[in-house]
Structures are given as structure tokens and as C-alpha cells.
Amino acid sequence: MNDLNALVVDAHSAFAASHSLADLENAKAQFLGRTGRVTELLKGLASLSPEVKKSKGAAINQVKQAIETALAQRRQALADEALSIQLKAQALDVTLPGRLRPMGGLHPVSLTLERIEQIFDSMGFEVAQGPEIESDWYNFTALNTPQDHPARSMHDTFYVEGGYLLRTHTSPMQIRYALSHVKRHQPLLDAGQAMPEIRVIAPGRTYRVDSDATHSPMFHQCEGLWIGQNISFKDLKVVFTDFCRTFFEASELALRFRPSFFPFTEPSAEIDIQFPSGPLAGRWLEVAGSGQVHPQVIRNMGLDPEHYMGFAFGMGPDRLTMLRYGVNDLRLFFDGDIRFLSQFR
Ligand code: PHE
After folding, report:
1. What pLDDT is stored for residue 102 in this prediction?
2. In angstroms, what is the span from residue 270 Cα to ligand 1's centroid?
3. Engineered SS bond to 145: which of 61, 263, 333, 340, CB 3.0-4.6 Å?
4. Residue 311 near residue 233 (C-beta atoms within 8 A)
5. With a 6 A CB cut-off, is 171 part of the ligand 1 pocket?
6. Residue of 304, 4, 298 lying closest to 143 (CA atoms)
7. Is the pLDDT at 69 greater than 80, yes or no?
8. Cβ neighbours around 86 below 10 Å, total
9. pTM for the full predicted model
């Protein structure tokens, strides 16, 4: 009997030492398998007398049952353990509030460009895009800029290989857009008929060798061009005044057209604005260059200056953004600090 008790104790400890179902099957085989210890005992009964067989057989069967019970308990324990590990790994607290994804937004200068495009679109202007790497001809020559003009110097202009440069203003788009417009309507012109007006803005990046709190080597400009048979300086004043008052949502905003010089306009004017109230009130702030398109430039567009005339302007969207939001250092826009930029979303 002592041997039988020891057998149950051994089985219990073998099962307890099994930490996987595979281990447990191996442990079971040691006791209940074909050559297991219990099985061997049962086999040994055959040679015994019927009486001994009966009592010993009953004892062995009790042992066998005890071992089977222990096995079933251990199986259940291992299954419970596996389940709780799995549940822990897949833990999902459905009562937690969701995590917010940080939202992106447009750059403040992009917001300004969108606003400019919307306003001019409402006045019937097209929006055109052009190359930032430009030829000397489009950037200077076609715009009536003399060979020895200071803007052409290495101090002011980034030259790249092959006679190209990074456009120093968006004005080359006057020529590019006008030439393609004229080409499209050449049959009308050839037939002595009037061509539909050119009415376009061209926003984009521009480059100059310049860097301080109010100048960046890369900056933005937006060109405007309106050419027709009788488009005058008066129209420039109306259009640009309307634009500025809408842009700044200030119907009392004052504008000043200050005489100036550009090779591609005659007469030329710098446009200054003055806020009626707020922190900048009373100061004249320059926002654009402008003028009536020079007859030579009209000719370079493929048009006859006796029949076609109009105005052009070039404004600084970076400057407009600074004025609109009260930002005093241009470099903040291009440093890429998300803490600054995210304030404009
Ligand atoms: N291109 C000029 C500049 O960059 C601005 C301008 C554009 C002036 C169109 C007149 C007409 O300063």
C-alpha cells in the first residue's frame, strides 16, 4: 500500500512540474501509458490468485482514478493559465476615451495665397503657375531690364548653370502667360479682331541674395496682370484697393500709390496701405510694386502697344501674412517650428 500511496504522490508532483500540455502528456504516459507504472501494476495482477487479485485490483484502480483526477485538474489549471495570459495580452479597455490624431494644417503663407486666389478669382482673374528656374530672357530682358541693371548682378540674383537663374520676381509670368494667351488667340488678331483680355495672377516662390528679419533668400510673390484695349491706371487703383480692403476685412483701409521706377512699367508706383485702427494704424506700409505695362513689354508679349495696354503689379504674400497676423520676423515662417505654425490652423 505504501508503494501505491507513493505512486499517487509521484504523479501529483510530476503533473505539477508540467508547465505545458505537451509536458503533461509525457508525465501522464509515465503512469497511465502502455508501459506506465499503473499499467504495469495492472498487468502484474494476472499471475495472482483470484482473492488477492480482487483486493489488490481494487486498490490499484483507486490509485488509477486518483491519478486520472489529478491529471484532469492539472489540465484544467494549464488551460486556465493559458487563457488568462491570452486575455492579459489582448487587454482592451473599451471605456477609455479615444486618442486624438494631431491634425495637420496649411502654412500661414499658403492660407494667404489661397485667400489672394479666392479674391482675384471673384474679380475674374485666372491663376497661373510658372517655373522657379527661369531664363535670363524671361526674368530680365523681356521685361525691358537693361544689361547693366543692378538687379542682374551676382549680389542680388542666384545664378544656376546654363545661363539660368532662380527667378527674382514673378514678373516673368507676365511674359509667359501673355505669350501663350496671344498664341491661343492669334487667329483673331490676324483677322483684325479684338483678343479676349488677359486677366491673371501668378503666385509663387521667388529668390534673391538677401537675408534678415524682413528678407529671406526664398520668399513669395504674387504677380497680377490685366491687359485689354483700354485698361488704365485707374483700373489698377480700383482693383488693388478692392483687393486690399477685402483681404484685410477693412473697408476704411487707405491706399497710396507712390511714384517709383521699374523697367517694365511706365508710370510705376509702389503701393502703400494704412490701417484705420489697430496696432499698425497711422503707418504707411509698402505691399506691392505696380504700374502701367511698358510699351516695349507689350511688344515682347506679341501685342501692338497702339492697341493694347494694361497694368501689372507684384505683391508680397509673406508681408501680407505678417501684417494680417501681426508677425514681426519673416524668418519665423520658414524655420519650420511647428509650435509657431500650428497657431494659424
Ligand atoms: N517685380 C517687381 C518687384 O519684384 C514688382 C512689380 C511687378 C512692379 C509688376 C511693377 C509691376 O519688385
Report:
1. 83
2. 9
3. 263
4. yes
5. yes
6. 298
7. yes
8. 9
9. 0.73
Predicted pLDDT at 215: 87
Which phi and psi angles does 193 have, rounded to 5°? -100, 165
- Residues near 24 by Cβ (< 8 Å), separated by ≥ 6? 15, 18, 71, 74, 75, 78
Question: Considering all CA atoms of the chain, what is the largest pairwise distance in Å, rounded to the nearest integer?
Answer: 138
Tell me, what DSSP letter sits at residue 248? T
Residue nearest to atom 4 of ligand 1 (CA): 169
CA neighbours closer than 13 Å in the CB half-sphere of residue 66: 16
The identity of residue 328, as a single letter, is N
- Residue of minimum CA distance from atom 9 in ligand 1: 313
Among candidates 208, 141, 146, which has minimal Cα distance to 175? 141
Using one digit for the tens of pLDDT, what is the confidence trace for 89-147? 888 888 989 898 888 899 999 999 999 999 999 999 999 999 999 999 999 999 999 99
Instruction: Categorize the per-residue pLDDT at 192 as very low, low, confident or very high, splitting at 50, 70 and 90.
Output: very high
